[in-house]
Amino acid sequence: MITEEKAYDILALDNNATPEEIIARYQTLKDQYRKIKDETADLKTQLAYQLKQIELDDVFIYFRNVQKYNLKDMPLHCPYHGDVGSFIVC
Question: Rounded mean pLDDT of 2-8?
């Protein structure tokens, strides 16, 4: 279960972060984790980074569902799909 404190910790942001900062950090980490996962030949590392991606998605869902963070209206950018207006898993 993701809590607000854990969500900020996973993103390495302080609790005063704006929705724009949350989205930017989410996308940066998601891209970094995807790149590491895709470039490694080690199965354990691939699985570890896939779990990190899932954890990031859980954080995004948490913030999207918390009303004080209106992330539903924040555009996301996916390097594969361009700008998308909702939660993505790539």
Answer: 92
